[in-house]
Amino acid sequence: ATKDEAKKHRYRQKISEYMTRAEDIKKHIEKEKQDGKYHKQIRIEENATGFGYEKLFQEYLTEIVSEVWVEDPYIRHVHQASRYSLYNFLRFCEMLVKGPCKVKTIHLLTSYDEGSGRSQQISGLEEIEQSLRNYGVTLNVAFSSSIHDREIRFNNGWMIKIGRGLDYFKKPQGRFSIGYCDFDLRPCHETTVDVFHTKHTKKM
Predict the structure, then answer these.
(1) Is residue 202 part of a domain?
(2) Does 42 lie in the same domain as 12?
(3) Which residues cross the membrane (predicted)?
(4) In a domain, 203, yes or no
(5) What is the DSSP letter of 68?
(6) Radius of gyration of the chain (CA)
(7) Which of 17, 68, 106, 142 sits between 20 and 30 A of 100, alpha carbons compared?
(8) 44: how many CB neighbours lie within 10 A of its CB?
């Protein structure tokens, strides 16, 4: 709005400098991604809300994502003490089915539930597998007794490591309490999320 030509010139110069700097930063980040050096860390505080799966993963689920790898040793029976891991994995799968990505294959590597929960764990995973098949998605499940790390990888090069895996939500206070259905409103356990970009996505 200024009519001062000298000020206009300075403002244009500054804007041009900022735009150039923004482009340089964008190129630098893109290069770091390509070099596999990109690293972003998100700290989820105790009792924090607003960290549903969509909020956490949507940024990385581009339209080219067609294959997903999940490594988590605790995708187990729903009645395991204070754990809702099978439901959490189901919710994660629902997010993938909704898009905008075109996921066709999900690979899950987990460990067997110990004791009497094993049959329910296998039954639950088979039910999820059948349900995903109705949406044209194949679920491949493998078990390992030595798995320890928790990570999620997409075939567009993104890798997300969550300290607690998919099970970072607190147990709801009741079946009719706010946050039972909407994970954005569910309080979280304290955990750290590390996001990397790699040129080559390791397959199981």
Answers:
(1) no
(2) no
(3) none
(4) no
(5) E
(6) 21
(7) 142
(8) 20
Tell me which residue range forms the domain holding 31.
Answer: 1-35
pLDDT at 34: 67
In this structure, what token pair is assigned to residue 147? 């798995």
How many independent structural domains does the chain possess? 2
Residue 29 sits in the same domain as residue 58: no
The pTM assigned to this predicted structure is: 0.79
What type of residue is 1?
A
Over residues 57-71, the pLDDT tens digits come to 999 999 999 999 999
Q: Identify the DSSP state of 88.
A: H
Residues 121-177 have pLDDT tens digits of 899 999 999 999 999 999 999 999 898 889 999 999 999 999 999 999 998 888 899
The answer on 88 and 165 residing in a single domain is yes
Residue 52 lies inside a defined structural domain of this protein: yes
